[in-house]
Please model this.
Amino acid sequence: MSNYHPLTEAEAVQYARSIPGLFSDGAVLTSREIGDGNLNLVFHIREEGREKGVILKQALPYARVVGESWPLTLDRARIESEALQVQAKLAEGLVPRVYKYDPDLALTVMEDLTDHIVMRKGLIARQQYPYFAEHMARFLARTLFFTSDFYVDRQEKKEWVRRFLNPQMCDITEGLVFTDPYYDAETNSFNPLIRTEVEAIWRDDALKREIAELKEAFMTQAQALVHGDLHTGSVMVTETSTKVIDPEFAYYGPMGFDIGALFANLLLSYASHEGHTADEEIRIAYQEWLLETIETIWNGFEEQFSALWQEHVTDEMWRVPGYRERFLTRVLQDSAGFAGCKMLRRVIGLAPVADLETIEDPQVRAEAEMLALHIGQALINRRKTLEKIGQLTAWVREIA
Ligand code: ADP
Ligand code: MG
Ligand code: MG
Ligand code: MG
Model:
């Protein structure tokens, strides 16, 4: 790590120029730091007059949101670049290509997706993406199945768990998703108009027992290599293309954590349109598209995961009749529970989502936030009765 230092824009240009095959000699290159994330530098390097450039993502040794007082391991850059390469093999075309990883600089050189937009922005603008659900179902089924004990050799799988140990990033999730929002922690920040609702959550031991169980599952269930931060800010889209970025939180965890992250963010969008979209007809049509998207993701995931299971699973015990169905029901229930935690966290805790933050009137925002809290709590409390995804979407309609 002796050569590590954060790059300046000029150094980023120099670095990109030195990679063979990317730019022609003497090309005029410009750099723009476009990182809107919380943790890292993202440089977009372009050659004048050409559409596609290249992205340099560099980890900083501290959390950018908080500052140098919150040190953070650079190993997350290795995890991110390795996870991207695993995902590229398993879910072709659904992640940016990695051109190079530089361990000294904690730097990944990757495909330029600036012709895409961050999905969250599209959702706020009420865009529909007709291929998104299908693409995500494929991403989830393939990345989760092919890294799990249902496919990987038992001994090799333990090596994978070791390779993707990500203790500091997991620690952030354990705190910000599974602990801090449920008591009066200093990291929390929420709309003062919902204080009564939040205090009721802090006093709700039955709810908190369910969350404690989900936290324990996050910490102990090494089911598959999960992305670990699969919100709608980690997906870039066009009308026809879907790319999953930013797997620096990847580790061996429960499959439902990724599926739940997507559900949570689609449901946060659902709740936010109570504030963004005054026209009832337009609002309901969009909210129905969001719920359909959740159903299509789950149904596509289940169908493809089952097909992979039929094709590849040889272990006697996994092949016991009914076990696959039992396993998938548990994944569905976990997904609902994790989705609920992620919704509560985005309303009560650190790092709010733009979907809700961009509702300007605090009273209108409070209504949307309370809806998100109610949906989140229902998902956590009722998850063990889930057998079919249609029950989950019916709960949402009933609560709204
Ligand atoms: P962080 O880990 O800091 O959240 P991200 O990987 O999410 O960093 O990137 C931050 C932002 O940079 C993204 O929201 C997106 O706008 C932009 N970005 C990241 N990767 C790419 C890419 N490959 N192509 C185009 N833009 C990108
Ligand atoms: Mg990000
Ligand atoms: Mg908040
Ligand atoms: Mg990130």
The CA atoms of residues 343 and 376 lie 6 Å apart. The domain at 9-111 is CATH 3.30.200.20 (Phosphorylase Kinase; domain 1). The chain has a mean pLDDT of 96. The beta strands are 29-33, 40-47, 54-59, 98-102, 107-111, 117-118, 224-226, 235-237, 242-244, 251-253.
